[in-house]
Amino acid sequence: MYRDTELFRGMRDPAKLHGRCGRCEFAGICGGSRARAFAVTGDLYAEEPWCAYQPGSFPFARAALAHALSAATADAAGYGPGAAQPGPAGRDDA
Q: Model confidence over 20-35: pLDDT tens digits?
């Protein structure tokens, strides 16, 4: 039900969010409280009424994005946290 119904798929889709949530750079991670938005406004996709964050005001947004992208690139190339680490003096036999 959670994965397949139109209602729940829509709730997980950041492109459907309105107001500040729709403009927020964290919409894909946070998404706000859909229950609270619906209870207060009657619109499931309305902005989170109790969220104090103003989209675009996170001072380190570019640095965080660059870090996340470099980590994803490293993981894809086999250099991420799960990759084999070289031994002492760069040897792989440690």
A: 999 998 898 888 999 9
Report which of 33, 49, 53, 32 is spatially closest to residue 41, judged by C-alpha positions: 49
Concatenated DSSP letters for the chain? Answer: -TTTSHHHHHHT-GGG--HHHHH-TTTTT----HHHHHHHHS-TTS--TT--PPTT--TTHHHHHHHHHHHHHHHHHT-STTSPPP-GGG-S--
* pLDDT of residue 49 exceeding 90: yes
Q: Per the confidence metrics, is the pTM higher than 0.85? A: no
Per-residue 3-state assignment (H helix, E strand, C coil) for 35-53: HHHHHHHCCCCCCCCCCCC
